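MarR family transcriptional regulator, Amycolatopsis rhizosphaerae. Tokens?
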Amino acid sequence: MTDAVLTASRLLVAISARSIASVDESITLSQFRLLVVLYARGPLKPTALAEALAVNPSTTTRMVDRLVAAGLVAREANPDSRRELVVKLTGDGTRAVREVMRRRRSEIARIVDRMPGGTRRGLVRALSAFAEASGDLSIGEQAGTRWL
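Tokens:
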């Protein structure tokens, strides 16, 4: 059972990596995760972004620096407090997230379409139960925004 889940997990990571590389080969999976958090939650203070990613603030700063240089995110004055900055997606960043997600959904749909109907229905039940059993509330939040 565990081996089957690990195999499926490797396939899904590979699909994600291919989808990202097809849009911009310079974006890493971790950087894309940052873009997705901003897409889902909107502009965030760097500390809140680090918390959402469960990484050190210095790691977030380095990722943001690279994504600013790539034109995918911007740092702006916080409208609530001019002394603070927020990180937000640029138009290019938003387009990149949407295109990666479109490609990822398309590739997963092609794979699922090759499965027999009964197996597809069982897959939905099994994956839903797997996500629920994890107890990770953020999974439900992500599913609600159609990331998975």
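The longest strand covers residues 81-89.
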